[in-house]
């Protein structure tokens, strides 16, 4: 069976209809997220951190060693908006370059905190903001709405599942 975005989208709707929310929502939502285009992935991350962020923020920065990512964040802040967006796209697309390798060696909790901090920097104007009027795809909307409905632990698990695979781990071979 081929697993496509359409299958994931349908499966995500079936998860809630079938009552298996706790068992299936995290893997189904994670799978659908990973099938979104890169810009929708970045938009969902931004929306999740800004809309759900008030409940997510205590877990991400508090549990992570953000100082390990500060050098990377400072490099990003020094770039033009076009370069900042390209770095985020490169991380999400797992493009092999120095920034992706630097990100790739971070721990899962530090990666969570890294994206939280990027969202904060975007809101503060230090990092390229979301384009005005950006429209998520239908599947992007489904992912975002599903994440909003889940409990805190499920939200964190989905975020962790999505950001851990971003970048390039130079130690993994």
Task: Characterise the protein shown here.
With 173 residues, the protein is an all-alpha fold. It has a single domain, classed as Orange carotenoid-binding protein, N-terminal domain (orange carotenoid protein, domain 2, Orthogonal Bundle). The radius of gyration is 16 Å and the shape is globular. α1 runs antiparallel to α2 (21-35), α2 (21-35) packs parallel to α10 (152-164) and α3 (38-56) crosses α8. It has helices spanning 5-18, 21-35, 38-56, 59-63, 67-77, 81-93, 98-104, 108-124, 138-149, 152-164.
What are the key terms here?
single chain, 73% helix, 0% strand, disordered N terminus
Walk me through the topology.
Layout: H1 5-18, H2 21-35, H3 38-56, H4 59-63, H5 67-77, H6 81-93, H7 98-104, H8 108-124, H9 138-149, H10 152-164
Helix pairs in contact: 1-2, 2-9, 2-10, 3-6, 3-8, 3-9, 5-8, 8-10
Quote the CATH topology. Answer: orange carotenoid protein, domain 2
Residue-averaged pLDDT: 82
- Gyration radius, rounded: 16 Å
Taken together, the total number of domains comes to 1
Overall CATH architecture: Orthogonal Bundle
Q: What is the CATH superfamily classification? A: Orange carotenoid-binding protein, N-terminal domain
- Count the DSSP helices: 10
**Broad shape:** globular
| Proportion of strand residues | under 5%
């Amino acid at each position: 069976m081929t697993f496509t975005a359409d299958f994931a989208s349908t499966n995500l709707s079936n998860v809630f209809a079938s009552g298996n929310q706790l068992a299936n929502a995290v893997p189904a939502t994670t799978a659908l997220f990973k099938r979104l285009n890169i810009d929708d992935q970045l938009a969902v991350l931004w929306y999740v951190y800004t809309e759900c962020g008030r409940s997510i923020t205590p877990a991400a920065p508090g549990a992570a060693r953000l100082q390990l990512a500060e050098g990377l964040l400072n490099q990003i802040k020094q770039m033009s908006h076009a370069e900042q967006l390209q770095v985020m796209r490169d991380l999400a697309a797992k493009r092999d370059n120095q920034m992706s390798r630097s990100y790739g060696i971070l721990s899962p909790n530090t990666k969570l905190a890294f994206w939280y901090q990027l969202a904060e920097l975007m809101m503060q104007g230090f990092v390229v903001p979301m384009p005005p009027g950006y429209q998520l795809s239908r599947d992007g909307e489904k992912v975002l709405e599903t994440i909003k409905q889940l409990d805190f632990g499920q939200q964190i698990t989905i975020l962790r599942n999505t950001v851990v695979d971003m970048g390039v781990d130079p130690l993994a071979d």
